[in-house]
Specification:
alpha/beta; 32% helix
């Protein structure tokens, strides 16, 4: 029976003096039964769990940037998240090789070394290949009608700065419990998910969401992993009938792999398809990978140092922008045009970033600044949530859409 695995990956890999954050892990089968569930600390532990749990034909959905080529700015798939899901208050953090925490890139390399195959949604893998692809729980929550979020994503992660301080954690816990009840209702969905079939995920139903920050994060990681596992199962069942491939027109790497994100989508969340449905056999095109040979085994990998880089602010004049506007200097190559259309050349210059992208980058850095503070710092959470709200408001200006339910 095919297994579907979900990974909510901690972006940071840890240091000599500080352990990495927890990563949530869930594995389900075709019946929706939870086979394995729990947490792991560090990339090596996540890879070991995946190798032990996966079997030929398994599908893995990972909530983390996996294939990152751009030195600065953000990937096309991340830009398209905001363009197509911004009205539902969903946006993506920018990822690039200049950021300090890219655990997904390390996981990508380790899984390939273990014999797993990266899947960008643009190819036909062998039936017995173990696939892994990039997913995003928020696009599943608002893109899958089964969850019942037609207007906006649920605020189950962050505190709401619009509420009095004393009410923020209680309200977040209520929203999180409501999300768990919707996950519980997937027992009758296609494909199904039954949290009650494993003692770890059953506790999500039996116990209320905690108010303390660290305990809530522990619970949230498992929830996101369960959503990712269900997303993997849904892709196997529905393919492009209910998914879209974000970033499909981005530049491939030297092996032809494209940095994409497979996202569940309602009809109104789709743009004009980049790939004609006629090119697909079932849920994927006609190019096949070589099948895996022999049993799955974890192989030793060497450390890869990421290219160092940083975003440089400079005066940058555009035809449609005032000369004094401040933007970020991009290294040529990487993303396609700002409207997501393919560029004329194979590797087009990346477009100048928008204010939304700059705020997303600031949000990301604020998020990772938490490591030097107290994990239950209410003021930090309020600042982080306020900045996220600014991103949604600016997306309304940029994309001409309402970003609030």
């Amino acid at each position: 029976m095919t297994r579907f695995l979900g990974v909510d990956l901690a972006w940071g890999e840890g240091t000599g003096s500080r352990a990495a954050n927890e990563s949530g892990l869930v594995c389900i089968d075709e019946t929706g039964a939870v086979i394995e569930a729990g947490w792991a600390v560090g990339i090596d532990a996540v890879v070991a769990w995946l190798v032990d749990t996966a079997s030929p034909g398994s599908v893995i959905a990972v909530d983390a940037p996996l294939l990152v080529q751009n030195q600065t700015g953000m990937r096309l798939c991340e830009r398209e998240v905001g363009q197509r899901y911004g009205r539902w208050q969903v946006s993506a953090y920018p990822s690039n090789l200049g950021l300090p925490a890219l655990g997904g890139v390390a996981l990508f390399r380790a899984l390939e070394a273990a014999g797993f195959q990266y899947f960008d949604g643009l190819s036909t893998p062998a039936a017995d290949a173990v696939l892994f692809f990039e997913a995003y729980p928020h696009t599943t929550l608002v893109g899958a009608e089964e969850f019942g979020y037609p207007d906006a994503r649920p605020r189950y992660k962050r505190l709401d700065p619009g509420l009095p301080v004393a009410e923020r954690r209680r309200r977040r816990a209520e929203v999180c419990d409501d999300l768990v009840s919707r996950l519980q209702a997937l027992t009758s969905a296609t494909p199904p998910l039954d949290l009650d079939t494993h003692p770890v995920t059953a506790l999500l139903i039996a116990e209320p969401s905690p108010l303390k920050e660290s305990a809530h994060k522990h619970r949230e990681d498992l929830i996101d992993a369960a959503i990712c596992a269900w997303t993997a199962s849904a892709w196997s069942r529905w393919g492009l009938e209910r998914f879209q491939v974000l970033g499909a027109s981005d530049a491939p790497d030297d092996r032809g792999r494209v940095p994409t994100l497979l996202a569940m989508a309602r009809p109104e969340q789709r743009s004009k398809p980049d790939i004609p449905f006629s090119a697909y056999n079932g849920s994927a095109p006609q190019r096949a990978f070589a099948p895996l040979r022999g049993p799955i085994s974890l192989q030793t990998t060497t450390d890869h140092d990421l290219d160092e880089g940083h975003m440089k602010k400079k005066e940058y004049a555009q035809d449609d922008a005032p000369a004094e506007s401040n933007t970020i200097e991009f290294v040529p190559g990487g993303a396609a045009n700002a409207d997501a259309s393919p560029a004329a050349s194979t590797r087009a210059p990346s477009p100048a970033p928008t204010t939304v992208e700059l705020l997303r980058s600031a949000t990301w850095h604020l998020e990772h600044a938490r490591v030097v503070g107290h994990p239950d710092d209410v003021e930090f959470e309020a600042a982080r949530s306020a900045l996220a709200e600014a991103v949604f408001d600016l997306e309304h200006v940029q994309y001409g859409e309402t970003t609030r339910g």
